[in-house]
Write a structure and sequence with these properties.
signal, 7 strands, cellulase activity, single chain, polysaccharide degradation, Glyco_hydro_45, binds 2-acetamido-2-deoxy-beta-D-glucopyranose
């Protein structure tokens, strides 16, 4: 009986741990992320959202800015470099065999397997999903990425939209520079991925931790601030607004 129970719980753990190979795309649509609604998964609190002024909203039921409301993606959800080979960020995901109950606020370590970033790793927390995502698909949030940049969400948050600097502020410009610097302008690289415990540096930004998560990991590389450790941007493309 004990053996059988042990085996069963092992099987459940093995089945629920998500890993495999997958694809990436990039987006930043400014809309309220789906994991910001309450009741999506068993989490400490839904993913934070911000209003047009960048102030944190406390009401998880606030209507998305993309549906005429005042709830938008917070600009500090831009990706950032921890060191040359590690970055942190957020993504919309769709992973085989799962649903938002298993994805929301789960973290995944992505090991890039193609393009200029092959060999680098990025840990993303799932904050969103999307009907246009296929299986094992990570749509990584980065300012300037994807069609959403130009459509109604970002203009609703920031007013007329010229690429972000003027309206989105420093966090968006830095996130956009990350794309051409740490990420080397990679175009939808493929990945191997595995489920990992979220670093506190990530959950501190999202405000969301899964209740089934083991205790948070020690921050990578002693968490030296990105301003001292991240490589200096070599390019400041005009698409970043600077
Ligand atoms: C990061 O990469 C750049 C350019 O390849 C190099 O000059 C720098 O020393 C690296 N920094 C670290 C912390 O490895
Ligand atoms: C995930 O992707 C599959 C395949 O494209 C799709 O059938 C499914 O509806 C998606 N799930 C969600 C929650 O979007
Ligand atoms: C997370 O936030 C807590 C509370 O503000 C802070 O003490 C801690 O240093 C932060 N951790 C990281 C890794 O940023």
């Amino acid at each position: 009986m004990m053996n059988k129970l042990y085996f069963l719980s092992f099987l459940v753990a093995a089945v629920s741990a998500q890993s495999g190979s997958g694809k990436t795309t990039r987006y930043w649509d400014c809309c309220k992320p789906s994991c910001s609604w309450s009741g999506k998964a068993d989490v400490t609190s839904p993913v934070r959202t911000c209003n047009r002024q960048g102030t944190l909203l406390t009401n998880p039921n606030a209507v998305s800015g993309c549906d005429g409301g005042d709830s938008f993606t917070c600009t500090n959800m831009s990706p950032w470099a921890v060191d040359n080979n590690t970055a942190y960020g957020f993504a919309a995901v769709n992973i085989s065999g799962g649903n938002e109950g298993s994805w929301c606020c789960q973290c995944y370590e992505l090991s890039f397997t193609s393009g200029p970033v092959a060999g680098k790793k990025m840990i993303v927390q799932a904050t969103n999903t999307g009907g246009d995502l296929g299986h094992n698909h990570f749509d990584i949030m980065m300012p300037g990425g994807g069609l959403g940049w130009f459509t109604h969400g970002c203009p609703a948050q920031f007013g007329s939209w010229n690429g972000g600097a003027q309206y989105g502020g420093v966090a968006l410009v830095k996130g956009c520079q990350w794309r051409f610097d740490w990420f080397q302008g990679a175009d939808n690289p493929s990945v191997n991925f595995k489920q990992v415990t979220c670093p506190t540096a990530i959950t501190n930004v999202s405000g969301c931790t899964r209740r089934d998560a083991p205790k948070a990991q020690a921050p990578a590389q002693g968490q030296v601030s990105s301003s001292t450790q991240a490589p200096t941007p070599s390019k400041a493309p005009s698409s970043c607004g600077v």
